Amino acid sequence: MLELLQQPWPWYVAGPLIGLTVPALLLVGNKALGISSSLRHICAACVPAGIPFLQYNWRAESWNLMFVLGIALGGFIGYRLMGHPDVVGISAETVRDLKAQLHLTDFSGLLPRELFALDNLANWKGWFFLVLGGFLVGFGTRYAGGCTSGHAISGLSNLQWVSLVAVIGFFAGGLLMTWLIYPLLF
Amino acid sequence: MKYLKYLVLGTLFGIILTKSEVISWFRIQEMFRFQAFHMYGVIGSAVVVGLISIQLIKRNHLKTLGGKPIVIADKKFSHGVWIGGLLFGLGWAITGACPGPLFAQLGSGVPAAAVMILAALAGTWTYSALREKLPN
């Protein structure tokens, strides 16, 4: 059992558990699963700067910040304490493509070091992958009114057509980056 | 300590994200290249379970543990839904992470996650500042 918990979990275990988070939050306190809102709350708490969109009682949303703090704690427990393989078991085709197209050689860890090492901030790669990438995640999710959890999981679970539009947008953006922009950059 | 339950649920959520490797850039690339079912299985089965759960809650008029009614707000449409969605999608394929995984990566000890979270905060702040000037 312990060994089973240490292995990477298959989709049919993880997916339903993620799905159960939706009713769990509703039953515990009528809260809708959503994570990108936490970024807004942090901005409202730390740098409101007189911006109308950041003037609201963020303290009333403290539960969301606690949830996010928990996610970080879960990352520590799940990765550091429960153990993990050195290499994420992606398909051989993906390894082949990433070697050929992005010139990756090191497949250890959660993210490729060749793109995400902090030293890369001395060249375009760091600014592209860390700074521009992060910026687009924060800008895009708020503009869209949600991220993968708020729109894809919560929204689609509640049959919101708006969320379906958002999810199609997420995928269109991801495919555009992977299939058109990456090949231009590398 | 009224927030403890959210800390616990968040921790469980973070463990699930981490153990299923959906916080890995490699898994997101595999997804956008249609080379494995893993991510589609995770998201798809999460939606199915979430959908059944919400239907059960609605049909049985379930209340919260504190006895309050459960009301889920509808998502409102604006042009931002698809424009912002597209921009987030570009960022998702770059960072290999949506906001939840960024926090889980930080906890797992990835230094880059701290930079990406700061950049994401800058993105959210910039959107907030420009909000009235953007098409909505």
UniProtKB/TrEMBL annotation, chain A:
Pfam family, one: Sulf_transp
Primary localization class, coarse: membrane
Compartments where found: Cell inner membrane
Keyword set includes Transmembrane: yes
Record field: transmembrane: 12-30, 63-82, 124-141, 161-182
Gene Ontology cellular-component annotations: plasma membrane
Lipid bilayer topology: Multi-pass membrane protein
Keywords, sorted A to Z: Cell inner membrane, Cell membrane, Membrane, Transmembrane, Transmembrane helix, Transport
InterPro entries found in the cross-reference section: Sulf_transp_TsuA/YedE (IPR007272)
PANTHER family on file: INNER MEMBRANE PROTEIN YEDE, SULPHUR TRANSPORT DOMAIN-CONTAINING PROTEIN
Family note: Belongs to the TsuA/YedE (TC 9.B.102) family.
Record protein name field: YeeE/YedE family protein
Automatic annotation (TrEMBL), chain B:
Source organism of the structure: Hymenobacter luteus
This protein's name: YeeE/YedE family protein
Segments passing through the bilayer: 36-57, 77-97, 109-130
Annotated InterPro entries: DUF6691
Domain of life of the organism encoding this protein: Bacteria
Phylogenetic classification of the source organism: Bacteria, Pseudomonadati, Bacteroidota, Cytophagia, Cytophagales
Keywords tagged on the record: Membrane, Transmembrane, Transmembrane helix
